[in-house]
Design brief:
The chain is an alpha+beta fold. It contains 1 helix and 10 strands; from the N terminus they run E-E-E-E-H-E-E-E-E-E-E. The chain is elongated, with a radius of gyration of 20 Å. The N and C termini lie far apart (50 Å).
Length: 113
């Protein structure tokens, strides 16, 4: 069952996220009729590892031998009170979709751009 976890942003705002029920990494905060768990790190901090992973993946595909014109990277992201943001899994594997594309050369043999 999902529970609500409150992440503070670095600017002081609050983001409430429904996460799988977990008892570690968050402390209960009473809010009216229910209990809202407060995350042990900020929302921005939780997403920092995903940001770093995206930068790394982008560098690998842009700087590699293939030299695509565009790179699209899609991560499935799951938020937890204990670990922050993690790459979500589908079945037994992490969720990562990469799309590379190239623009056909324009007339005259030079790349379009």
């Amino acid at each position: 069952m999902d529970e609500l976890v409150e992440f503070a942003t670095d600017s002081g705002a609050s983001v409430v996220v429904a996460v799988e029920d977990e008892s570690r990494g968050a402390r209960p905060v009473s809010r009216g009729d229910g209990v809202l768990r407060q995350a042990g790190q900020t929302f921005d901090g939780a997403l920092e590892s995903i940001h770093t992973a995206a930068e790394s993946a982008l560098r690998v595909f842009r700087d590699g031998e293939l030299k695509p014109d565009t790179v699209e990277i899609e991560f499935g992201v799951k938020l937890t009170a204990e670990a922050g943001a993690v790459i979500a899994k589908t079945s037994m594997e992490g969720h990562l979709v990469v799309k590379l594309s190239w623009t056909p050369a324009a007339a005259g043999g030079t790349p379009a751009g």
